[in-house]
Amino acid sequence: MLDSQPDAAADALIRGAGLRVTATRVAVLDALRARPHATADDVFDRIVGSLPGTSKQSVYNALGDFADAGLARRIEPAGHAGTFELRVGDNHHHVVCTRCGRIDDVDCVVGSAPCLHVPEGSGYLIETAEVTFWGVCSDCRAESEAEKPRGSR
Amino acid sequence: MLDSQPDAAADALIRGAGLRVTATRVAVLDALRARPHATADDVFDRIVGSLPGTSKQSVYNALGDFADAGLARRIEPAGHAGTFELRVGDNHHHVVCTRCGRIDDVDCVVGSAPCLHVPEGSGYLIETAEVTFWGVCSDCRAESEAEKPRGSR
DNA sequence: TGTCATTTTTGATTCACTCAAAACTAGCTA
DNA sequence: TAGCTAGTTTTGAGTGAATCAAAAATGACA
């Protein structure tokens, strides 16, 4: 945990993406590893402690650069801030909790490309398909159970 | 087309949803019929002409009320402003043009609930599934063809 | 070690939207 | 048909998320 051990893995990842290795970027990458679905704010909050003086703008920059470089993916569930994840390159989708906003991954159920073929004649040349599930996570379910413990409904 | 003909259909729809019938709401409903995927701004722009003095806030109110009443649905493709449509109650999805932002409906391909079952053990109680396709619409394709007419690949 | 393009910082600005109080009005009731 | 009142609209301020741009700092190469 000494800062003389500069996290070779992060280093290689960033450099491999064609980006310069900077303290901000390494920290942002770490934050994304610690929290696989994080907003710019989440990342910033996690970083300021260890890297005082970092600006939110830098976090936006780093996240944007990662996304451009294909190192991270940006998703944006309706009503939520843009959220970043490091898991890229595979076809997976997301579940969003309608109560607490928590996001989790959902592996693609039906092979690599599920029922996601657009009917012919749409005129569109489809590039990607995105599936978002909305529901209530187990924590929030447990919580609402606890609130009405009467055998009610 | 006389304004003494107050659009009985819109009237009934709004009233039927338990909302008071007002000029703003009728106009907003009309705008949504004319443009099946419209943002608050789109609606406002279309309305101000015939209903000067209308505020954008009123449009937000009307659209929000429609959505709450189940008269309209709000969708929000990543990077786009909230968009409203009157087509509700059926399971359909959307294609968004990555060039011009145009949105079109996509009928649900595989019956009423496609491959949209989340793997067991996710812990989530799923309420809805949302599919968004991203691609290039025919207009934008035609346009980019026109730009590089050389048989250039 | 110096150089220079890439990054970060700082600060202003935008956009989509929400909040809240005051003014207005649809539609029920007497 | 006038009056009442809850539901709407208006006005204006305020928010969060994100972008833009210019100046200062720094990584990585020669």
How would you characterize this protein structure?
The structure is a homodimer of 153-residue chains. With 153 residues, chain A is an alpha+beta fold. Chain A is 35% helix and 20% strand. Chain A is built from five helices and six strands, in the order ααβααβββββα. Chain A has helices at residues 8-16, 23-34, 40-48, 56-69, 138-147; strands at 38-39, 73-75, 83-85, 92-97, 103-107, 125-136. In chain A, the strands form two sheets. Chain A has a three-stranded antiparallel β-sheet with strand order 1-3-2. In chain A, a hairpin with a 7-residue loop joins strand 2 and strand 3 (83-85). In chain A, helix 3 packs across helix 4. Chain A is globular. The interface between A and B is large, with 38 and 38 residues. Strand 6 of chain A pairs antiparallel with strand 6 (125-136) of chain B, so a sheet runs across the interface. The structure holds a DNA duplex (30 and 30 nucleotides).
